[in-house]
Input
Amino acid sequence: MEIVSTMADYKRAYEQSVAHPEDFWSEIASDFVWKRKWDKVLEWDFKNAEVKWFIGGKMNITENCIDRHLAERADQTAVIWEPGDPGQKARMITYQQLHDEVCKVSNVLKSHGVRKGDRVCIYMPMVPELAYAVLACARIGAVHSVVFAGFSAGSLADRINDAGCKMVLTADGAFRGDKKVDLKKIVDEAVDKCPSVEKVLMLERIASKPSMKAGRDFDWQEEMNKADANCKAEEMDAEDLLFILYTSGSTGKPKGMVHTCGGYMVHVGYTFRTVFQYQPGQIFWCTADIGWVTGHSYILYGPLSAGATTVIFEGIPSWPDQGRFWQAIERHKVNTFYTAPTAIRSLQQSSVEFVEKYDLSSLKILGSVGEPINEEAWQWYNKNIGKEKCPIVDTWWQTETGGIMISPIANVTKLKPAFASFPLPGVQPAVMDEKGNEISGNGIEGRLAIKFPWPSIARTIYGNHQRFKEIYFSTFSGMYFTGDGCKRDDEGYYRITGRVDDIIIVSGHNLGTAEIENAIDEHKAVCETAVVGFPHDIKGQGVYAFVICYEKPKDEEKLRQEIRDTVSKIIGPIAKPDKIQFVSGLPKTRSGKIMRRILRKVAEGDTSNLGDTTTLLDPTIVDEITRGALG
Ligand code: WT7
Output
């Protein structure tokens, strides 16, 4: 495939991708290994939320990510595993070893009855075995559903049940800084409520020796010892399911986004090589967890399809100290470093001594993803980490888009801090006004939609196509709606301004306010709740909850703690409210709809102009809420 390497290339590629999208993607797809070539490149109907790419094509993504590299790079490191504890030795896994381990896990899965099309839930820490597990599913055609190992038993059970998973792959536990989390305990609690689960495979990580249920639970290592290191890759149709990945929805029920094999492979492979200008031999580190889409696409599938060396990091940025990232960059001579604004902001608070201690001269390219990066964080990243020599690619995309959509191309696009800049070739954005008309020209602001399909667009919400259609294809007729607001400046640069719906992004994690409200309502003292986001220095957005109790709380602090624990237990610690304000009522319209606009203003600490409150059922409640606002 031709990789854009100048602005003139970009313009040419972009124009071709709009004028002849099928030829454009067909040429890119030809650089992957197919068992059978497609008959038709694209069929689509956005009105019915239907998209198909590379129709009739047959392939297996693991042959592209592993087997095809064996001739040239069997002994090259595919994965560098940096353990959470810096005192432990890193593990280097070559492409040959990756092949063998993935095949072994594939055979273990098969021996436990997993077949093509079956769903497998993966709930594991950031260890190499997590990568093997994901790739093994793909190899045998099982659909992986990775659940971030910070989710609670209840959230895990919901996801397992929604997808009807047959098997769960997990570990006894995980290290989180100097703490240990008992994952197997959480899995046991979840699986009790999951009738579809027949088997659980458990990797030993923290030597906790949890109880094992005979006939259901199996030890990873024992099973691997029996497994063969060769396993033929299943022939998959381009449109067969590759994975389900849950993302928060505004109704409180998470959405199982479905991605298929062919288009996803082509899009993430192409964008990895284009955006990061990947050169053979380079070392790429994306700090996300594999439990999020960023990890799926840019720790595993994108880099491996390009034959790169990819880093899997088990630790956290702040333990044993704030220099952990920089130490690992020095240790592994990382060339490209891709992280989230929330991590940058939190490290920015610590002394630059933590950075200066380490040699970061291997770095060539920096990336940012997950939420808008504020200019201050951008400048700090540029100066202290990139030493003003590394371009920062601010990549905008979503779980639903599968891969990067709007982003600078490293060393090609002239950068503007806090701008995701231009759409990649093949991506056709539109900025829409509230009436649903496209706004043309530059120097404008509106809602971001996409006019034309791209190969890695999610195909549906698992088990609920109607919901998929309503959420993404009914706001603007004939277009995909992103849920984000954006600006397009005088030079045509895009700046993503944040969500315009009821999703908040806390430390780069996408959370639905309804989901948090439901969790808070589970506390027996709570009658009703409204949750909004508020600007938070480190997390980007924090969670602000307005809570009505049945009785006036006697000990507010104690109740706050209990509510936080409830949310932690039901969803996971990431969703814990930062601020909880007890109120006697909520600002509601006559039809009963909560006026979140007002609550958002209060949470932001800006009550000077709350707009029109006369349509409220009880306008006096606004005064009470404003007076009690938490600073
Ligand atoms: C939402 C998607 C992209 C994978 C990780 C998050 C926000 C993401 C950017 C960016 C501004 C961004 C958007 C988007 N977002 N990247 N570079 N600039 N906003 O995936 O959990 O599906 O969240 O993250 O609001 O809609 P996700």
Remarks:
- The pocket of WT7 is lined by residues 247, 292-294, 369-372, 394-399, 420, 482-484, 496, 498-499, 505, 510 (CB under 6 Å).
- Residues 473 and 480 are 5 Å apart (CA to CA).
